[in-house]
Automatic annotation (TrEMBL):
Name of the featured protein: Cytochrome P450
BP-aspect Gene Ontology terms: sterol metabolic process
Lineage, highest ranks first: Bacteria, Bacillati, Actinomycetota, Actinomycetes, Pseudonocardiales
GO molecular function, one term: iron ion binding
A Pfam family hit: p450
Cofactor: heme
Length: 471
């Protein structure tokens, strides 16, 4: 595969001198580890960065821009030290495929464990191999087509009543408002309840647990400490709700996990249910909020697409959205795909090698953190025409640029850990968008460019203010 040409940053960073310096300085290249003699493998090139903090500052300040720079400098496989460990970047679709398809069983979820293990312990994404398959099979029972249809009806209800409360105006804070709405959806669909008086405590516990993963200081203080406290709040919350849920026959996801039973009689323990619920709430909440925020942003920037999406939704009338009805919104489908290409809600995926392995001809030793970078893959000009341009038609049948490589487009990951909530998440975001365009019109100034925070997940730094009008 030809090396990528220089790609401008896909989102703005502050063009301060410090950032420019961080982005452009070159350090002497060092090998990560010597390949076994006679293996014919090459070492992984890279460098450790500054003493103690390594390249952590660059990653936190520059995010994908920095990953792109390293790809240009070293190619698809390189290493850097950050957050106290050596990390190998597996950039580009070929590298992502090797890692995520994991044919050699060399890549384990212990990579996530290192960053978010203390906060999301034994969530599905943190389990490995046989144990993971066991839990995934059981959890799948909560995501059958029949269950999804049931959830979808509830999503529509919550979204419709939530949007009735929105007070339009100039500078309307899209991100915060969507985050509240997706939390309301999650508490209704996942728990058949409202977190009510606990809402603020539970919401901030989620925020703290998610942000803790990129703490530079991994001690029970500051960001890391807040994450640990957040985890305790969530555990107490779900554990207290568990007995009633076990006894109930409600149609929410929490109850579905309590009652999941395979033909062989396998079930989840109480601890399993609490761990899975905490992870699921996190996995569903931020990702959907970011995907919807990106979609709202691009529709605000491109009124011709907003009109097109609205025309389809208005033509559908007031009927409740079903799985089939959602399939009849092709423009919305294109726009959502393009929004998640331009802003991958989960921009990187983390693994750890459990044995020495080969990655695109490079020797990667056991015990190393390996990251695949979906957001970078979405931006490579080898796979996408004019990658920085908002161009939903690239996903249309006659172009299908996403088929250029199985791992060129991977907002939901790939391989055995591919997002189990992909269909639910897609329905939720489409429902939100459908109800939004029916009720409102919105715009952003022509010279406005949102900045996505490279900390943990890409959140709009300024909360994404738009001018919102009721139709
Ligand atoms: C737009 C919305 C979403 C996006 C972009 C997204 C993205 C992802 C990605 C990239 C992964 C793979 C991580 C890896 O391989 O390391 C993943 C895994 C996962 N997601 Fe999602 N997700 C979304 C919504 C949801 C929702 C709504 C749920 C639950 C209802 C959910 C539950 C999960 C779970 C449980 C896993 C772990 C799967 C496993 O390890 O087997 N996600 N998601």
């Amino acid at each position: 595969m030809a090396q990528s040409t220089v790609v401008p940053p896909p989102y703005d960073v502050d063009h301060t001198r410090v950032n420019e310096w961080l982005l452009n300085r070159r350090r002497p290249v060092r090998d990560l580890a010597a390949p076994p003699p006679g293996s014919g493998l090459r070492p992984v090139p890279g460098d450790p960065g500054l003493p103690v903090i390594g390249h952590g500052i660059e990653l936190l300040r520059l995010g994908i821009n920095y990953a792109m720079k390293r790809y240009e400098q070293h190619g698809p496989v390189s290493w850097a030290r950050a957050f106290g460990v050596n990390m190998v970047s597996a950039t580009g679709p070929d590298a992502a495929q090797t890692v995520l398809a994991n044919k050699d069983k060399a890549y384990s979820q212990q990579g996530w464990e290192y960053f978010i293990g203390p906060f999301f312990t034994r969530g599905l994404m943190l389990l490995d191999f046989e144990e993971h398959l066991y839990h995934r099979r059981l959890m799948q029972l909560a995501f059958t087509a029949e269950r999804l249809s049931g959830y979808l009806g509830q999503v529509s209800e919550v979204v419709r009543s939530g949007l009735d409360d929105w007070a339009p105006g100039t500078g309307f804070p899209v991100y915060r408002s969507l985050k509240q709405l997706t939390l309301d959806v999650a508490t209704r669909v996942f728990m058949a309840s409202s977190v009510g008086a606990d809402a603020d405590r539970v919401t901030s516990a989620f925020v703290d647990t998610v942000r803790a993963g990129t703490a530079l200081v991994r001690l029970p203080v500051g960001r890391w400490g807040a994450g640990l406290r957040g985890r305790r709040v969530l555990e107490d919350y779900f554990r207290a709700a568990l007995p009633a849920k076990r006894a109930s026959d409600s149609d929410d996801l929490f109850a579905a996990l309590c009652h999941a039973r395979t033909d062989e009689g396998e079930t989840f323990t109480d601890d399993d249910v609490v761990n899975h619920m905490i992870f699921l709430m996190m996995a569903a909440h931020d990702t959907s909020t970011i995907a919807t925020s990106a979609l709202v942003y691009y529709l605000g920037k491109h009124p011709e697409w907003q009109d097109r999406v609205r025309a389809e939704s208005l033509a559908m009338g007031d009927q409740p959205l079903t799985v089939e009805a959602l399939g009849q919104l092709p423009a919305l489908d294109l726009v959502l795909k393009e929004s998640m290409r331009l802003v991958a809600p989960v921009p990187w995926m983390v693994r750890r090698t459990v044995k020495d392995t080969e990655l695109l001809g490079h020797h990667v030793p056991a015990g190393v953190i390996v990251t695949t970078l979906s957001w970078v893959n979405h931006m490579l000009p080898e796979y996408w025409s004019d990658p920085l341009r908002f161009d939903p038609e690239r996903f249309a049948q006659d172009r299908r640029e996403d088929r250029s490589h199985r791992f060129a487009y991977m907002p939901f990951g790939g391989g055995v850990h591919k997002c189990i909530g992909m269909h639910f998440g897609t329905y939720e975001v489409k429902t939100l968008a459908h109800e939004l365009v029916r009720r409102f019109e919105w715009s952003v100034p022509a010279d406005y460019h949102v900045r996505w925070d490279p900390m943990a997940l890409p959140l709009p730094k300024d909360g994404l203010p738009v001018t919102l009008r009721r139709r």
